[in-house]
Amino acid sequence: MPSEEIETDKLENIVSNNQLKSIIQKLSNDEKKILYFGFIEELSNSEIAIKMNLTEKTVRNKKSIIKAKIKANMEDFNNENRYE
User: Fold this and answer.
1) Angle, in degrees to the nearest 10, between helices 18-25 and 56-80
2) Are the C-beta atoms of residues 40 and 7 closer than 8 Å to each other?
3) pLDDT (tens digit, 9 = 90+) per residue, 40-71?
4) Which of 7, 17, 19, 23 pairs with 74 at a CA distance of 20 to 30 A?
5) Cα–Cα distances in Å, from 33 out to 1, 18, 20, 52, 77?
6) Phi, psi (5° rounding) for residue 28?
7) Quick one: which of 65, 18, 67 has its CA closest to 39?
């Protein structure tokens, strides 16, 4: 198994909230890696950029996109389950 798959698998195993786990599974591999490096390994944007061969601006932009996706999916889930 390539190391990038191991990293993204670790991320999904660390998260215990099923709703959040489901959202993470929908992210692209690059998004999962950025999430893992940023929040689990606590790397800076510049360290993530170097590790993934991206610009620091790209990492910042992707983090914003990831946060927006997570927020939107959490809101969708909450709206769907509001009246149950």
Assistant:
1) 130
2) no
3) 899 999 999 999 999 999 999 999 999 999 88
4) 7
5) 15, 19, 16, 9, 24
6) -70, 165
7) 67
The DSSP result for 15-74, as a single string, is: ---HHHHHHHHTS-HHHHHHHIIIIIS---HHHHHHHHT--HHHHHHHHHHHHHHHHHHH
For the stretch 41-46, contacts whose Cβ atoms lie closer than 8 Å and that sit 24 or more positions apart, written own/partner, are none
Q: pTM score, two decimals? A: 0.71
Provide the residue range defining the domain that includes 24: 3-80
pLDDT of residue 41: 92
CATH code for the domain in which residue 27 is found: 1.10.10
Number of domains in the chain: 1
